[in-house]
Q: What sequence folds into this?
């Protein structure tokens, strides 16, 4: 299965407070829903191409009412792709 990574932009800034330096992370999740939906579409296409239309339909029905699982699978795919890069 092919993973297409669309990660949320992350900005890191170095800040100091009373002599202590720390990193401040800001993450922009404004595109997360659209990215996860695009990932799901490609995932279902991959399942259809690999296992057939019936299996793709079964996966779609299983995930239809479970957005948390879709999000988890998307994040795992993005993480795995980042590790492989």
A:
């Amino acid at each position: 299965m092919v993973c297409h990574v669309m990660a949320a932009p992350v900005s890191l800034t170095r800040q100091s407070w009373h002599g202590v330096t720390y990193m401040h992370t800001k993450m922009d999740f404004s595109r997360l829903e659209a990215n996860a939906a695009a990932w799901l579409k490609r995932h279902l296409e991959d399942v259809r191409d690999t296992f057939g239309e019936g299996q793709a339909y079964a996966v779609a029905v299983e995930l239809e009412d479970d957005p948390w699982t879709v999000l988890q699978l998307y994040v795992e795919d993005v993480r795995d792709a980042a590790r492989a890069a």
